[in-house]
Amino acid sequence: MSEPWNSLPVPLADEISGCWSSVFPDGFPDWLKSAEGMTEGVVAGAFARSLFLRQTVERHPEQVRAMMVSRSLTEATTAGYLEQRWQEYLADVDSETSLHAALRQFRREAQFRIIWRDLMRWADLSETMLATSGFADTCIQGALDWLYDDACEQSGTPWGEHPVTGEDAPQKMVVLGMGKLGGRELNVSSDIDLIFAFPSGGETRDGRRSIDNQTFFIRLGQRLIQALDQITGDGFVFRVDMRLRPYGQSGALALSFAALEAYYQDQGRDWERYAMVKARVVAGDQEAGQVLMESLRPFVYRKYIDFSAFESLRSMKAMISREVRRKGLENNIKLGSGGIREIEFVVQAFQLIRGGRDRELQQRELLVILKELEELELLPSRVVIELREAYVFLRNLEHALQGMEDKQTQLLPDDDLSRDRVALIMGFDDWAGCEHALNRHREQVATHFSDIITTEDEEESGADALDEGWHELWLAEVEEEAATRWLSDHGYEAPSDSYKALCDLRENRTVQTMQTQGRKRLNQFMPMLLNALTTVDNPSETLSRVLQLVEAILRRTAYMVLLLENPGAGTQLVRLCSDSPWIARQLAETPLLLDELLNAESLYHPPAKEQLQDDLRQQMLRIPFEDLEEQMESLRHFKKAHILRVAASELKGTLPLMKVSDYLTWIAEVVLDHVVDVAYANLVSRHGYPGRADGETGEMDFAVIGYGKLGGIELGYSSDLDLVFVHKGDPELSTDGDKPIDNAVFYTRLGQRIVHILNTQTPSGQLYEVDMRLRPSGNSGLLVSTLQAFDKYQRNDAWTWEHQALSRARGVAGCPETLQSFERIRHDILCQPREREALRKEVVDMREKMRANLGTPANRQTETFHIKHDAGGIVDIEFMVQYLMLAWSSDHPELTQWSDNIRQMEELGRAGLIPVEDTERLREAFIALRSTIHRRALQNLNSQVEGGSFPEERTYIRAMWKKVMMDS
């Protein structure tokens, strides 16, 4: 008798023969022999296709046996069957812990059944997607039902206005499933995107203590997420992503129908319309949920043909391209060119543009919509057929990639054994055949995507229209003398240096070894660049700066294509590099920033904080919190891209000088907010939520305090972040996870994780350099303090200079309640009565020490002026303001409301502590000095200028110093 694996490809046959006896040490078991369709050859084929299936049989044979007894694997997996099996698991649930265990054991069974039938092709794509989505619905509803009843026992039943009858009635949660879950198209190892809602405000009744409805549903939502997402000894059920809810990670976990409707009506973004296309009530009060969905329909589908959507489509197309370039996703069948996302994008584009008028398009399933597009004659039959076939192929391939090890991935394998496995699943003799079919589908999708989304009037490359002289110059077809004369005639101020730089580039080893396609692109790009440089005042100097970028992209010539196909971007590149060597260096270090040059409107008008939050939210939506490496890379790109916009705007004059620091500070705040969320979610997944005295979980109780330039809203282009971490958790309590740790340890690790994310050098550099020396007791103190310990230290042990620093401190990220508590402590400390003469002496002594250590030596003060540290500089103004605040806040508590110098000076003037005319002159001097530092930073210059600079400002600041700090 032949071995059961003999019909498999040789590498897979060898693998199965090597593991067969360890899986079945006593031989092929009778319970498998007797199961319908289960021959040894079939089982060997399943094991060859999936390590997950093999390991489940090996580690949990009794559960697999029980599953086969309940229904043969040859029978379809229906929603009714899944519900029946869940009820059997639910019968043994008597606590939240046993609920978690039942859900995870149920998942193991369902995943085994769904993946087996899919990889063996006993189920088609439709069954697999419906079964996986139905399983998710069953788990969400099952967990929600149990947790809702338990929450009502503890806190009472929430009551409020019924959305249909308008009468006072008990309320239940509504759970919206987004994305593939909403469309019943979930893949076999997917996360789930959810939004929690409830009908209306009100309070609970008949519980131990009454709470408002929103608090009830937020707590219920937290417990539901834990039931599904938390990793235990049995694994997890689904990774739950709540970032699609209004305001993202910073928004309330559950909102009333009215709040949701108001948000989408007033603030809903285009990408949120896309998300809502597939939204579906997956659990909870179905009747109320349909009322909610009807109220949101006008947001998603306009009543008219919405041609305005084309602009957002172009933006989203650009975002897809940037994401692919940034992450190197060419081998990602979802996000790469010609992938699943492009098919989804094409279909959703028609839904948003025409769905308000053609109600047939107001459905969720992609394959259904494709058919409607054909019947409405919005797409030709050939295009629909090719997109449908590609979608089915790509989704089957996605399930193959994920089902092999029950892992969420869309990346093609790079090892031979995995490729053989995928080819076997997909029905090909070898990987080459599978890859050929894949490439054919992707090429067709990419073509249709480009035809439908790209506008006809996109600018064509102007390379062919260039004067032949630039081509001859770059290709070295003219002698050196003629070449330098050409450069000189076209405005190059150092033609010989420029000629030599071009020769050095041509002789660069990377250029010499470039492939034909790359060399062709370089030969098109360089003449265009040389011609474009003639439009600036310093073409030779600018060329030397831009060549840093050219060398950086020699192996990534797609960036040259980007500049060739977008002449406007090339113009911005030349202009910015001419104006700022700092920008030139940023572009060379991170060529992906070239994408920012495509839209001059956004380049020279950086977004305010709310738009920054929305931008980051969009960028990070598809990156799981646990993928820390990709989170860090994306955050670094986000920061660099937006700082480039600020720098470009400052150089062009579209951003007032006083606003530059505001924008740089907003960028840091938005980044910090997200970093805290990522670090917190990462730790919670391992250890659970920190314990609280009131028994509730889910609240962070942690805050980040910004000091120095961050606290004072005065960040520069390369400023570090002075941070202090505080929390108001009970250090005696522990977290509630399967691997509990003390709260104190949890918050310390949270602080360490935040510093790690900010400080670590990745391929994209460092996010921010973090300075923690201003925390209580400095470097010898705890990384994270309780608010009580922080308060005690500030009252009893802090030095005067630490109270000076506190005057520039403010909360920048974390728990709002903790931030408010910090502000109260700050206010109380700054308002303490102080002996003014002793305080004045301490501040003056500290200033003298700083000037001696950091200022210009006495013998060089006629040559150099240090804008910050020398007499008459910025620090003199800061110390005067800080002294007056500490001396007089006890009499004028309103002085403490601001942390930035400008508004503090204005408050001192209003309080009569400095004449108003003096505060205005100090303010003007302060702005002039700070603006100079900003401009010099963009020229890669330090804060030292010629000794005769700013004579009037320095004279006035020294006079004010003498008046405020020296005269009694």
From TrEMBL:
Span of domain Glutamate-ammonia ligase adenylyltransferase repeated: 46-290, 571-824
GO biological process terms on file: regulation of glutamine family amino acid metabolic process
EC id: 2.7.7.89, 2.7.7.42
A single Gene Ontology CC term: cytosol
CDD domains xref list: NT_GlnE_GlnD_like (cd05401)
Record has Nucleotide-binding as a keyword: yes
Keyword Nucleotidyltransferase: yes
Span of domain PII-uridylyltransferase/Glutamine-synthetase adenylyltransferase: 314-452, 847-935
Cofactors, names only: Mg(2+)
Enzyme class: transferase
Alphabetically ordered keywords of this record: ATP-binding, Ligase, Magnesium, Multifunctional enzyme, Nucleotide-binding, Nucleotidyltransferase, Transferase
Segments of this protein annotated with the region Adenylyl removase: 1-457
Coiled coil residues, start to end: none
Molecular function as annotated in GO: [glutamate-ammonia-ligase] adenylyltransferase activity; [glutamine synthetase]-adenylyl-L-tyrosine phosphorylase activity; ATP binding; ligase activity; magnesium ion binding
UniProt region (Adenylyl transferase), positions on chain: 466-968
Pfam families linked to this entry: GlnD_UR_UTase, GlnE
InterPro entries reported in the protein's UniProt record: GlnE, GlnE_rpt_dom, NT_sf, PII_UdlTrfase/GS_AdlTrfase
Source organism superkingdom: Bacteria
Gene3D superfamilies referenced in this protein's UniProt entry, alphabetically: 1.20.120.1510, Beta Polymerase, domain 2, Nucleotidyltransferases domain 2
Catalysed transformations (reactions): [glutamine synthetase]-L-tyrosine + ATP = [glutamine synthetase]-O(4)-(5'-adenylyl)-L-tyrosine + diphosphate; [glutamine synthetase]-O(4)-(5'-adenylyl)-L-tyrosine + phosphate = [glutamine synthetase]-L-tyrosine + ADP
HAMAP family, per database record: GlnE
Chain's role: Involved in the regulation of glutamine synthetase GlnA, a key enzyme in the process to assimilate ammonia. When cellular nitrogen levels are high, the C-terminal adenylyl transferase (AT) inactivates GlnA by covalent transfer of an adenylyl group from ATP to specific tyrosine residue of GlnA, thus reducing its activity. Conversely, when nitrogen levels are low, the N-terminal adenylyl removase (AR) activates GlnA by removing the adenylyl group by phosphorolysis, increasing its activity.
Sequence similarity: Belongs to the GlnE family.
Protein name, entry field: Bifunctional glutamine synthetase adenylyltransferase/adenylyl-removing enzyme
